[in-house]
Request: fold
Amino acid sequence: MANQTTNSTSKHHEVLNIVKGSTNSQIQGHFSPSKNIDRRGVKTQGKEYGEI
Reply:
């Protein structure tokens, strides 16, 4: 159980780091609905991911 928790947290952190990093359009296309990509970019996505 402890292992699973660690794994899932790691993945979450990885995703957040990638989102903060670069390559906006590709990553946003993957993780967030088109509506939110429009002009807001990574900032919107960071907030959404924080809430999830």
